[in-house]
């Protein structure tokens, strides 16, 4: 089945999350104040905790500008359920693929000391360092490319999205050091901002081309995070095809995993 390998990976992540939460939840009942709040996240506006030593009343709304959930990790293309690219997609073969993103605003509701739900927005980039000396066509539909005689030292294909995740976050009670483990799962969506191909060669120097390159104008998927204090791990699977109006790239999806800061 198409999503068998992804289901297995996400299931393994969730088992690890639950184990981590169980260990960290052994010590200390929840305090009525958060005067020693240790899970610091750079945030402006109303927080989901009180850092002034006052008693917390639930439910508690929070929201405002933030700089949080900074994701930095690796990407893998999944072609019809396989990590190996089909013959139609070999031109997208890559030596390195990565993912980077962060949130800049959020609004949500903390129901109690252990659970909150929130919507956030931010930006996300996916990078493919292509192996082949190709130039993607900025005008044709479906996605097409031309082989180049130039030997490119760098050929990077980037997609940039405005991301809009919905998150359900659970955290353990504080341990004896006042720290917590956290689990977050949810649905994510994104709106395409641009596609970019960056080239570097001895012959032409640095070149940059921008277009939508038939990239999906709207992306969606699922994600999971597990963390301790303000750091953690993430995994994301994009359910939509990476490209639209491009039949040869049907069932080509993206899977990313890596580290999260200020989670």
Automatic annotation (TrEMBL):
Keywords: Signal. The keyword Signal applies. It holds the Pfam family OMP_b-brl_2. Residues 83-239 form the Outer membrane protein beta-barrel domain. Residues 1-25 form the signal peptide. It comes from the Bacteria. InterPro entries: Beta-barrel_OMP_2. This is Outer membrane protein beta-barrel domain-containing protein.
């Amino acid at each position: 089945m198409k999503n068998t390998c992804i289901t297995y990976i996400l299931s393994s992540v969730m088992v690890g999350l639950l184990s981590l939460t169980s260990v960290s939840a052994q010590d200390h009942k929840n305090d009525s104040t958060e005067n020693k709040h240790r899970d610091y996240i750079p945030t402006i506006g109303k927080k989901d905790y009180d850092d002034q030593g006052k008693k917390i009343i639930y439910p508690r709304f929070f929201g405002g500008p933030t700089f949080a959930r900074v994701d930095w990790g690796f990407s893998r293309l999944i072609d019809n359920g396989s990590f190996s690219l089909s013959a139609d997609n070999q031109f997208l073969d890559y030596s390195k693929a990565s993912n980077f993103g962060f949130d800049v605003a959020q609004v949500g509701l903390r129901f109690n000391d252990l659970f909150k739900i929130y919507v956030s927005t931010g930006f996300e980039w996916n990078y493919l360092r292509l192996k082949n000396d190709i130039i993607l066509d900025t005008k044709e539909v479906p996605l097409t490319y031309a082989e180049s005689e130039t030997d490119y030292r760098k050929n990077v294909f980037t997609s940039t999205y405005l991301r809009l995740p919905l998150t359900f976050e659970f955290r353990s009670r504080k341990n004896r050091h006042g720290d917590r483990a956290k689990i977050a799962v949810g649905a994510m969506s994104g709106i395409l901002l641009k596609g970019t191909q960056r080239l570097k060669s001895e012959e032409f120097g640095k070149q940059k081309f921008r277009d939508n390159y038939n990239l999906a104008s709207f992306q969606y998927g699922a994600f999971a995070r597990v963390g301790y204090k303000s750091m953690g791990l993430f995994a994301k699977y994009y359910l939509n095809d990476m490209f639209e109006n491009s039949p040869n790239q049907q069932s080509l999806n993206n899977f990313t995993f890596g580290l999260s800061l200020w989670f």
